[in-house]
Specification:
Chain A: Its cofactor is FAD. The complex is a heterodimer. By secondary structure, chain A is an alpha/beta fold. Chain A is 19% helix and 31% strand. In chain A, α6 links the parallel β10 (215-221) and β11. The chains are: A alpha/beta, B alpha+beta.
Amino acid sequence: MAGTFVPPTRFAVPGRIAVSNRAAAVWQRATVVDVRRENAAGTVSSFRLKVPDWQGHLPGQHLMLRLTAPDGYVAQRHYSIASAPDGSGEIELTLDHVPGGEVSGHLHTVARVGDVVEVRGPLSGFFAWPGDRPALLLGAGSGVVPLMSMLRHWRRAGRPVPLRLLVSARTPEDLIYAQEYGDETTVVLTRTEGRLSAAHVAPLLGPAQPEGGWEAYICGSNGFAEHASRLLVAGGQPVDRIRIERFG
Amino acid sequence: MTIEHRTTIEQRRPVEPTRGFTGRARAADRDPRLPPGQYDAADGWPVLSAEVTPELSPAEWTFRVDGLVTSPRTWTWDDAHELPASEYRGDIHCVTSWSKFGVRFGGASLDAFLAAAGPRPEATHVVAYSHTGYTTNLPLADVTGGKAWIVWEYGDGPLPPEHGGPARLIVPHLYFWKSVKWVAGLRLLDHDEPGFWEQNGYHHRGNPWREERYSGD
């Protein structure tokens, strides 16, 4: 935009895509059409939603989900979209059952197929990956959810560019989407192997990286995000090509 | 205003209750400090930053006020600490729907910095920016008159790096994306100019009590 003030240093990571303000502003009815368990521990499930007016999304985007009580009380949370954009009119969310969680608790223990919730989105073009350049994805726990949308999109598109995924989980029982990983993925089980380390990222950075370098996406707890981003920076990944989504 | 009119209609539309959802907090005993659509993060303080936490030491930190002012100025860490101490005790609200009650930030009022630079009469808005280059826009009236601070303390200690340390802006009456971490400066303008999140779909002002979350709200 002409005349826009540019600060002395560029924002580390510019936005990738513009979002639809209309889609972001309108609440839509979403019908639960399937519920599926996603880890052996039974603490994580995917909820498939039919959203008739869904405008489509890019991998990595999230939405806001709202529940309403009979007296008008509402609770709303942001959730990453797990499914690839596929034009089916349906999307999937994958949720941790957070202890005491008002919204995730309802969805895990009360919600069933046929129920209606409300969503608005997709939101934020910032963590989005349109599939156009090599992607290095690092996720921990349920932080793998938006990265799975990217992985599924990449596979549907016929693997047009290099993609690598590093997934950190405590134990095999905690690992989400265990059946879906292929040779593009390295799983790090922290209880037995220790945390993600320089040894995991070093072979992917430096001379081995694809031409033009990686676009890095990190998603997980703040502790994981801080740790993983420092590993990448120490390994030579440019700061302005690291995008982070932190879960509270 | 058209947008506010539309929002009013939207809010009046009866919302169909979600089967089986009662809500932990009832509307009747809802904490009056909690704006609509927010929940109490209690002891938690989520980090909502999309970028790598910069390694910025107090010795490297500076804060500049320029644009439509009579005397553009840059403060160092020591310069800023010579300003009268000022603190904010109260609540903060993030657009991602958590609120945090009764926090304390210590630093200096933004009024002290602006008084030294001397805003020109035609200045109406500011762009606040960080040492990493993040930007956000604010009406000048939202950061003057005791409504905004440059802070370097959280609770009794230094502001943690992932929360914007060594120093950040806080504008607690607006959603917290306006409260620039690792703040580097303010530029005063005679027009409104959307910053990073505002160009990416967020509301231009961000009043939590009106739920001004996204553009069009």
